[in-house]
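haha ok so turns out i had the wrong file open the whole time. this is the CORRECT one, sorry everyone. sequence first:
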Amino acid sequence: MAGVFINYRTGDGAEAAVLLDEQLKGVFGPENVFRDRRGTSPGEHFPPHLWRTLESCTVLLVLIGRNWLSLCDDTGRRRIDVPGDYVHDEICAALTWRRTVIPVLIDGAALPTKKELPADIAELTERQFMHLRVPYAHLDLPVITDVLRRHVPVSPPPATPAAGGPPQMSGFTFGDGNAVNFGSGDATSYTNSAVSHGGNATYNENAGGKSGGQNDGMNGGTS
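then structure:
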């Protein structure tokens, strides 16, 4: 998979992640765009699937909303600082592996400063960002898509049926058949990340996957 990995935090960017996913999978093919809720099959062992997918991707899109940095867990700690936070660990891994990392600022959110971020992902502030305004997604999504064309192969168009022959089906299925719900819901809890803070990304076979709960710990693997 030489594609795009969408990193977002539940409670701050989930709607934008769905919009972005729908746009990009129609251009690059669903197999070249990863969003955790669509790209993980029921019963799949989530942590190893997540890290294998991230490692094979070319671009990490980091969706940052206005509450991205301030959201806290039940103890009052910022989620970005909690060990095992998927948002943090996916960014850390992508930076360590020297992937193309693009912050996407949602609805006028500001890019955090280096002092506001954990030291091992402070480099995120040095990456050129883009904007995604949900009410103006029809204007911003094509701009983001054009940038990604430089990094990700475009999906071939559907085959044109031969004259007089039976219709030919495209090799791609665009859409997962489920309706998108933009209402609010319970956050998803992500725990036990497989990436070590401040070092090379590694997978721990004993790491747990996402579970429904009060917190999510990114990520996109979202948390």
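Strands lie at 4-7, 33-34, 59-64, 100-106, 130-132, 188-190, 210-212.
again sry for the mixup
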